[in-house]
Task: inverse folding
């Protein structure tokens, strides 16, 4: 096995002179806090998704909380979300005082299972959070038919399509994250978007408290800066080319892994994939007691930093049973480096490591 000292990181932002010029322009303007650049970014994102408007905030996690509060969700209410996801949606539900109702995922796609969500609906259910994980949309068609307000979490799947519709254009509210490793990077920040102007006004009232006509106890300072918005705008203008690079790399990965033991990402009919992450499954029949960790270590010895795509399912933190698809994903799923800033020679190194690791004997 080849050992290299050149480590390819699992994630890396794609920044060029366009983002640098945008930040420089803001610095030279003398206005760094929330201002005109934030407003342009909100309009640009709303136009991209075909929605009425957006409310920029300081993180994707706070965007989730603002969305829940804008819907009036609080103590005594229930919010359905998948167990196989990062902690942010659960934390947002806890902070508003509601109860998180966890459901399992579709076994092959890692997305929230719409039929299990249907079965979990009670008289207290006030929303469903659908995180579109890893670049693939959830089954929006089925989720939209459940009769419960849908919050789309597009942190990982901007630009993807489901049944001809843009991800983020279906739910009553959409949230985005612009963290440093996301599809659209602003360093940090988030946004709440909607076609409902009343919900947008509620979200704005929660974002800041200065010059408000009345006191809102939940309102606080959640503002995005013009520096972040300038980066976000530059990235939004580049988004088609960034997504094209991701899809092109994913095509190379698929070709390299064809005929190996790795199970490639599923793309159901009617859904497109923008490959925020390239997630493969290692068949369970090949797994020893700690085979996934061994795979991570072997790839790293070849200079390729891989990751488990979700550190731990929410139900395992909470001590719940009955989530077989989430637990299988934890045992089998592996995320390979894939991002627009990946150089051709780095991609070649990853392809060699992939073939070495998953070549059939």
Result:
């Amino acid at each position: 096995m080849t050992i290299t000292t050149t480590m390819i990181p699992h994630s890396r932002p794609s920044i060029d002179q366009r983002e640098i010029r945008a930040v420089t322009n803001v610095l030279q303007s003398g206005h760094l806090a929330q201002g005109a650049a934030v407003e342009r970014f909100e309009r640009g994102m709303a136009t991209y998704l075909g929605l009425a408007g957006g409310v920029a905030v300081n993180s994707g996690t706070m965007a989730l909380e603002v969305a829940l509060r804008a819907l009036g969700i609080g103590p005594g209410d229930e919010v359905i979300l998948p167990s196989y996801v990062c902690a942010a949606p659960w934390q947002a539900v806890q902070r508003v005082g509601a109860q998180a109702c966890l459901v399992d995922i579709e076994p092959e796609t890692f997305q929230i299972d719409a039929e299990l969500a249907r079965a979990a609906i009670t008289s207290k259910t006030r929303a469903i959070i659908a995180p579109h994980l890893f670049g693939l949309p959830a089954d929006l068609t089925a989720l939209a038919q459940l009769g419960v307000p849908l919050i789309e979490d597009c942190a990982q799947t901007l630009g993807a399509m489901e049944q001809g519709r843009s991800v983020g254009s279906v739910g009553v509210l959409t949230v985005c994250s612009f963290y440093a490793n996301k599809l659209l990077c602003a360093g940090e920040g988030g946004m709440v978007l909607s076609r409902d102007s009343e919900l947008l006004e509620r979200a704005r009232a929660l974002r800041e408290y200065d010059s408000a006509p009345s006191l809102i106890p939940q309102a606080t300072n959640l503002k995005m800066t013009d520096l972040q918005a300038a980066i976000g705008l530059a990235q939004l203008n580049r988004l088609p080319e960034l997504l094209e690079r991701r899809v092109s790399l994913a095509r190379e990965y698929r070709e390299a892994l064809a005929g190996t033991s790795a199970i490639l990402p599923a793309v159901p009919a009617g859904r497109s994939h923008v490959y925020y992450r390239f997630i493969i499954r290692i068949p369970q029949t090949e797994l020893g007691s700690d085979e996934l960790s061994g795979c991570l270590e072997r790839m790293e010895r070849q200079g390729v930093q891989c990751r488990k795509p979700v550190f731990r399912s929410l139900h395992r933190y909470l001590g719940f049973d009955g989530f077989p698809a989430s637990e299988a994903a934890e045992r089998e799923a592996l995320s390979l480096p894939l991002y627009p800033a990946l150089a051709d020679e780095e991609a070649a190194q990853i392809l060699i490591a992939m073939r070495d690791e998953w070549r059939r004997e």
Q: What stands out?
A: Residues 226-257 form the longest helix (32 residues). The chain has a mean pLDDT of 94. The radius of gyration is 21 Å. The longest strand covers residues 125-131.
